[in-house]
Write a structure and sequence with these properties.
By secondary structure, the chain is an alpha/beta fold. It has eleven helices and twelve strands.
Length: about 350
């Protein structure tokens, strides 16, 4: 600890991303990255931008990307906000809409960055436990005195999704605060709440290009909502960093959003492989939660999660193990890779189990 740290820095418990070991080449099934290359059109657009005049600042308004996203979702450009990954978008939303002194409601088992943002912005979490079957019970989000509600749909790390009717129930139960729906994995089998944006002025939907569009390396995320909510995020962004998206990333992201056919192609591949992998894991005795994401959440009734995780790592396969976290310490999250990668996983597990 440095003597120059403020009390705020010293008090933080930062988010810990999935491990990225460098000691050897692994089959990486631990950080929910796409196993497929980005859209060829996105790669071509970025390559072309590399050859352009990078001495110039990028467009601070990300006009081309906002237009592409608005067209894709049937919205107006002023209903779209773009940030440096969905993590930055989430951070700005927490700062702008939830740090007014009241608690913020979100699930006990969900994206662990929410607790970090809450700590950073002095927000008191109102932790709402999932059911015993790891479902969100929307009745638990009624009659709350909170600054807002965050729902991850599909949820992570469980992979379970809520129906649009249940999202509507949360929105209707909390009309006077922002309900943020984090849809990082929505393209793998869930229904997006974007269709509700024009009905509910308190709805903010956050998505990313990191998962289904295979662009985790360029860090682009976005929010969709009522123009007044979006304008609030723009005010925050322009009080912090007016140029969050570089020219190369902006070109690639715009081309990727416009290539809807490629998005569907690789998402469908991932879904098909997930269904096959779930069947194979169940045949080995694993309990596999129903998933609408690019991962499966599993446990084995006779084998310790830690022992499986370590044995897989020794064999050059990484999965996400949650250690001593309450309720999920015996679970592992396994990203869906290519058919070849998942075959390799199953063969190693057959020998272990």
């Amino acid at each position: 600890m440095s003597r120059f740290w403020t009390d705020k820095i010293a008090s933080l418990d930062p988010y810990v991303p999935g491990e990225q070991p460098q000691d050897k080449k692994y089959i990486k099934l631990n950080t929910n990255e796409s196993p497929y290359s980005p859209s060829p059109k996105a790669i071509a657009a970025m390559q072309e931008m590399v050859g352009s005049d990078l001495r110039l600042y990028p467009d601070p308004n990300c006009t081309s990307l906002k237009k592409a996203l608005a067209t894709s979702y049937g919205l107006e450009s002023n209903q779209v906000f773009v940030g440096n990954g969905s993590d930055e978008v989430l951070a700005l939303a927490f700062m702008g809409y939830f740090s007014n002194g009241k608690p913020l409601a979100f699930a006990d088992i969900t994206y662990s960055f929410y607790k970090v943002y809450a700590q950073l912005y002095n927000i008191v979490p109102n932790i709402v436990p999932l059911t015993d079957s790891f479902d969100i019970d929307v009745n638990d989000y009624k009659d709350l005195d909170v600054s807002g509600v965050v729902v991850t749909n599909p949820n992570a790390p469980t992979g379970k999704a809520l129906s649009l009717d249940k999202i509507k129930s949360v929105l209707q139960s909390n009309p006077d605060v922002v309900v943020l729906v984090d849809e990082a994995y929505v393209d793998f089998g869930a229904d997006s709440a974007v269709s509700l944006v024009n009905q509910y002025p308190n709805l903010l939907v956050v998505q990313t290009l990191s998962k289904s569009r295979a662009l985790a390396g360029i860090r682009v995320g976005y929010a969709l909502g009522h123009k007044d909510l979006i304008d609030g995020l723009e005010r925050l962004k322009n009080s912090f960093n007016s140029y969050p998206i570089d020219r190369i990333a902006l070109a690639g992201a715009t081309a990727a959003v416009e290539d809807a056919e490629y998005l569907r192609e690789i998402s469908d591949k991932t879904i098909a492989t997930r269904l096959w992998a779930a069947r194979e894991l169940k045949a080995l005795g694993f309990e596999v939660l129903g998933s609408s994401t690019n991962f499966v959440f599993v446990t084995h009734p006779e084998k310790q999660a830690e022992s499986i995780y370590l044995a897989l790592k020794e064999q050059g396969i990484l999965v996400r193990y949650f250690g001593n976290k309450p309720r999920i310490g015996e679970y592992m999250r396994i990203t869906i890779g290519t058919d070849e990668e998942m075959n390799a996983l199953i063969e190693v597990l057959k020998a272990l189990i």
